[in-house]
Design goal:
With 143 residues, the protein is an alpha+beta fold. The protein is 39% helix and 17% strand. The chain is elongated.
């Protein structure tokens, strides 16, 4: 297992990950029933020494629903491939993608004003609708 490179500034050492293997479900006959190819990769965010408090806060806010337990563990399971090595590589790649997306900061939206044309179209539509309603109004019936 090598260290996980999340981005150019952050690399998480492999010692901070826990790997658990298990038997994968699904079709495969005898092979799937006796070989542990599925992989569960765990990363404890809370006690991690490689993350700053700011980075931990970003992970908590963006991936909070995926964090498990008191040590705020991020869990990724991979069982799509037939070999344990490929599932492990897949799990590490998915973990890196999750962490990468957690650190992306969205650009703040700049407030813009409605264009003159859009304002004119809105007012024209309102006037047209009002005229239609006015046309529907009938005068009182005098008997």
């Amino acid at each position: 297992m090598s260290d996980l490179v999340v981005n150019e500034r952050l690399t998480i050492p492999s010692a901070e990950f826990t790997v658990k293997t298990m038997r994968a479900s699904g079709p495969g006959g005898q092979h799937v029933n006796k070989v542990e190819t599925a992989v569960e990769l765990r990363f404890a965010v809370g006690p991690s020494a490689s993350l700053s408090n700011n980075e931990k806060a970003k992970i908590r806010s963006r991936l909070g629903s995926r964090l498990v337990g008191e040590d705020e563990t991020l869990v990724v399971r991979a069982r799509a491939q037939r070999s344990q090595k490929r599932n492990l590589d897949d799990a590490f790649e998915r973990m890196a993608t999750l962490l990468r997306e957690a650190f992306i900061t969205e650009k703040a939206r700049r407030a813009t004003r409605p264009t003159k044309g859009s304002q004119r179209r809105r007012v024209d539509a309102k006037k047209q609708r009002g005229a239609l309603k006015k046309q529907r109004r009938g005068g009182g019936h005098e008997d």
